[in-house]
Description:
The complex is a heterodimer. Chain A is an alpha/beta fold. Chain A contains seven helices and seven strands; from the N terminus they run βαααβαβαββββαα. In chain A, strands 4-3-2-1-5-6-7 form a seven-stranded mixed β-sheet. Chain A is globular and about 40 Å long. Chain B folds into two domains: 23-282, Aconitase, domain 3 (2-Layer Sandwich); 290-436, 2-Layer Sandwich (Aconitase, domain 3). Chain B has a five-stranded parallel β-sheet, with helices on both faces. A five-stranded parallel β-sheet of chain B has the order 16-15-14-17-18. A four-stranded parallel β-sheet of chain B has the order 10-9-8-11. In chain B, helix 2 (56-67) packs across helix 5, helix 6 runs parallel beside helix 8 and helix 11 packs parallel to helix 14 (419-428). Chain B starts with 22 loop residues before the first helix and ends in a 10-residue tail after the last helix. The relative contact order of chain B is 0.13.
Amino acid sequence: MKLTGKAWKFGDDISTDHITPGRYYHLRSKMEELAKHVMEDADPEFPKKMKPGDFIVAGKNFGMGSSREHAPLALKIAGVSAIIAKSFARIFYRNAINIGLPVLIADTDAIEEGDELEVDLSTGVIKNLTKGSEIKAKPMPKVMIRILQEGGLVNFVKKHGDLAV
Amino acid sequence: MGNGVTGMTGDKSLEMDGLKGTLAEKILSRACGKAVKAGDYVFASIDAAMIHDITGPLAIKAFKEIAGEDGKVWDASRIVIAFDHQVPADSVSAAENHKMLRKFAEEQGILNYDVHEGIAHQIMVEKGHVLPGMVVVGADSHTCMYGALGAFATGIGSTDMGSVFALGKLWFKVPETVKFVISGKLGKHVYGKDVILKLIGIVGADGANYKACEFAGEVVEKMSMSERLTMSNMVIEMGGKAGIIQPDKVTEDYLRSIGVDFQIPEWLRSDEDAKYRTVELDVTGMEPQVAKPHRVDNVVGVGEVEGVRVDQVFIGSCTNGRYEDLKVAAEFLKGEKIAKNVRLIVIPATRTQYMQALKDGLIDVFVEAGAIVEFPSCGPCMGGSFGLIASGEVSVSTSNRNFVGRQGSPEGRIYLVSPATAAATAIYGEITDPRKVK
């Protein structure tokens, strides 16, 4: 599956409070509303300027902090098609896969904000269409690929009745 | 057994006594019925699971998508629901969420600690839901706190939890372990909180990402359960999956004090020859530590930030809202008044901690000093309920996160400290070294 979109660049250690600030938690049962504020504390303009299909490209330890699934969910609902980062915080990484939001680990230094990217989820190849360059993401653990292929953990368990790995 | 404790699940056929490994490896081996090592993927039985009012609704949604509207959870006696983030309901939407969770608890026969009981993590520990050697999951990142009792406890998301509710099991990658060996002697007014802040400063916010942490050494051995809980609580701030302390007499005595008679099994110890990365710290002469905005690993000695003007001080949270923490704060505040233009918010972690503080006169001390004492809850650390800070304001807090916007305005600034440093700071209205006060 190939995804194309524009890169929005962020630094290291983007926390779940950057992604979904606590002051909007009264909106958590209206995820579409919460998603309108996604990443606001990392870049106040982000919810306005991003377009569905775009990518978040970040440094290391993306998604550190809370286990709140509202964080990856708000990104998915806002239309972010995948997150590419040097590394992810553990719980966020798992949550993203579980809800079917692709997360790729790659050296993101060469990607600049605004670059047009084409990401092939099956091979992990990230093509930078603006720069004409190409990088490869680290392969995902097998269990995660299986969950992502089923569209998330709920579908996986429904289909297989179990999640033995 | 104490209040509503259910013993361990797991395959009894595995012979644990001959097994060698880290605490994480051994606990996960027991829970999946075969000897496993770091790097293995396992499917482990869950001994206890917790959801709260923020993450609960999504977990139930995931569970119902898997098991159907009328599906039954795998074992209601192993699940705990606790309301702590928006209590009592601060909005109609919070009230609706509470109503939904109450209904689910009743239908399924799950124990529900309602709005009056306090912070979920402290409830899990003091009501005896966690035993040494258990695998415990919670839909909250600070679930790692229960590692202080020698459990493998980790935070998971709501969808993972929905699947746990349905299956009673979850997949894990057995983590590698970082062993923190703490030696020396803690100085006056230096606590477990200062030690864990120092360690996070050393290894960084992702220094233990995907790893289990173990805390050991003479300093940890001498620590009370309350201080151990503070240490384990914050391993997530260095990315840790679990923060385990080998159970000992302190653990046994603590369990006895809450009415749980539990003998620590022989196998539940960390083997010297297991594979660890070791980080050593000698705390002799270490000053009280402060995590500066906006990162928990931005840690300095208090001397470097003394004199920073403060608008609000918060003493509480799952990290430092226990009776022992309140007692330390009260020793500073007794007979004192907080500085003009400073708001001091004190929140006991649970009703039990609150009652003990009431009985011993600590609450009188706080109120007389000018503090606002709030009902047990996450308080300002939730960042969206109450006790928030405005733009440009400074909060000094005993909680665990100082991220942008964590306590309200994204233009506010949060410093993390121990209860002693927080209390001293409240008196002077600026960040204050507690050793200079008493």
